[in-house]
Amino acid sequence: MLRTVVLVLLALPVLSLTAWGPALAAPNLTVYSARKEDLIRPAVEAFQQETGIKVTLLTGKAGELARRIEIEKASPKGDLFLGTTAGVAELLRRKGLLESYSSPYARELPDEFRAPDWTWVGVTGRVRVIIYNKNLVKESEAPRSFFELTDPRWKGKVVVASMGERTTVGHLATIMALKGEEFTARYVKGLKANGLKVLNNNTEVRKAVAKGEYAVGITNHYYYLLQLQENPASPVGIVYPDQGSADMGAPVYSITAAIVKGAKNLDAAKKFVDFLLQPKGNRLLVEGEFEIPLVPGAQAVGADKGIKGLGEFKRAPVTQAQVADFEPKIEKLFGPLLIP
Q: What is the DSSP letter of 340?
């Protein structure tokens, strides 16, 4: 009798455990992003669809998100940090708040766009450029160097975003890293004495130049493309500055991805970093944000409008970590001067 019962039980179909209890929860990922939500959202949605991992996206200023990560360090609520430059990620690294992850998809990136211990990695880049209004400035007479802009010829004609924009901070940090504190102080004071106008952000800068309110703007390359996307008839031109053999080159800054130390969803965070570095995910960032790929040989969006890929112009010879070294000093010295 017992043998018969056992045989009958063995013959019954095996039931899934989920039939006896609640379904296993789908994996989650919480991303703290200094990138605007509408710019990062396409990549997030594609990642969710491909992996089934649900992403909670919290956006804010890079410094505010960094402070949140530090406050939560005993029990992290965020898994991954996306910064608009490497500076904030580097500061988090030095405080021991980031997890090392050497993504196999980051091996081809230039060393300058990753942390030495792989705690952060660049996923796309933006170039610091000069834009100008073609109705006010002939192409042949457009400034070819950031350092020309202290010349009386440009008095009251130049506009830049405040240091609320991290690339404004990074730009001056690059100059200080290459030319020293004394030179940088003279340069900033020279710009201010020449009537430099400071606006809240880079969007205001590109619109002011397009309207002819200012002849020249210091900004990032993709704001030139955003202006043309908004109004293809905009009379704006672009210059990659300081390209001579003795010049410093154009600064390049990377959108960085960094996994938070103690992240509760570590595997999901690693998958997201991988996704952003792989061609499909990276292309969504490049096309959606008009940034340039950091992988050598990858084509930049906007080549027909004068946009150059990473190897097509001279870039400033500094690492992202070196720029981060000088950012706190830049904020302290020039923050009061560069306010709207």
A: -
Distance of CA 193 to the CA centre of its chain: 31
Predicted confidence (pLDDT) per residue in 265-278, tens digit: 999 999 999 999 99
pLDDT tens per residue, range 10-48 = 443 433 333 333 334 567 999 999 988 888 899 999 999
Query: Could you tell me the sign of the dihedral formed by the alpha carbons of 248, 189, 185, 177, in that order?
Result: negative
Which residues of 197-242 form beta strands (DSSP E)?
Answer: 197-199, 216-220, 236-239
d(CA 122, CA 320): 9
Q: How far apart are CA 90 and CA 94, in angstroms?
A: 6
Paired tokens of 300? 């930049």
* One domain for residues 150 and 101: no
Question: Mean pLDDT throughout 299-321?
Answer: 92
In a domain, 312, yes or no: no
- The alpha carbon torsion through 11, 17, 19, 20 (nearest 10 deg) reads 100
User: Are 160 and 273 found together in one domain?
Assistant: no
Judge if 203 and 330 occupy the same domain.
Answer: yes
Report the C-alpha gap between 261 and 78 in whole angstroms: 9
pLDDT at 100 over 80: yes
How many domains, the chain? 2
Classify 1 as helix, strand or coil: coil
Q: Residue 53's Cα: distance from chain center in Å?
A: 23
